[in-house]
Design a protein that fits this description.
This protein is an alpha/beta fold. The protein has six helices and nine strands.
Length: about 200
């Protein structure tokens, strides 16, 4: 077993102890090498359950949060197939999603991060990801509606454009707030949107 996959397995076991129970998520965490998403100087911390800086004032999310948000998508009423990710960042969350769902659409506003993430997806041989450079708060209207939307940066308030791009039975996972942020889960039932608060989180704005 390669070093990274052994460490990936240890990380998955740690997340299981933290309460992540979906095997599809734990398998993706074990199989996807987190070290390739991290700057060389921080690679020794790649398999710790911690957020790390990736440049441009951005971070790679804590593995627990990546796993938790992915698991929340999988718990939607209809198993999602088409996922929109807002904030590609390093591409780690994108890769976890691509390992589980049929199609992933990812929007990133920082061109250099998007370029690096695209290179990593090619390296991992993922072909079910479409990427776009642009303002994530506007979603990706031409590809909508989506069964699931996952947002990896905090919004001051719920972005209306994203809510509108949710399909019937779809689910949106998003951190909301400025100083105090809450992870929110919004389910669409017809014209009704049912919101629940999951837990307190800390994301880059």
């Amino acid at each position: 077993m390669a070093l990274s996959s052994r460490r990936g397995l240890q990380l998955a076991q740690l997340l299981e102890q933290e309460g992540v129970s979906d095997n599809r998520v734990l398998t993706a965490i074990a199989n996807i090498p987190r070290d390739i998403f991290i700057p060389d100087a921080l690679k020794h911390k790649a398999y710790q359950n911690t957020a790390l800086p990736i440049g441009q004032g951005q971070t790679i999310s804590q593995p627990y949060i990546v796993a938790k948000m992915t698991e929340l998508l999988l718990k939607a009423e209809n198993t999602p197939k088409r996922i929109l990710e807002i904030g590609t960042g390093s591409g780690y969350q994108t890769a976890i999603l691509a390992g589980i769902f049929d199609q992933v659409f990812s929007v990133e506003r920082i061109k250099s991060l998007q370029f690096q993430a695209k290179r990593r997806m090619n390296q991992l041989d993922f072909h079910n990801i479409s990427m776009k450079h642009g303002d994530g708060w506007e979603g990706w209207k031409s590809k909508a509606p989506f069964d699931g939307i996952i947002v990896t940066a905090a919004a001051a308030e719920l972005p209306q454009a994203l809510v509108e791009q949710l399909d019937e039975g779809g689910r949106l996972i998003i951190p909301v707030g400025n100083d105090k942020q809450q992870l929110k889960c919004i389910d669409r039932k017809g014209d009704e949107f049912i919101e629940q608060t999951i837990e307190a989180v800390r994301f880059v704005p």
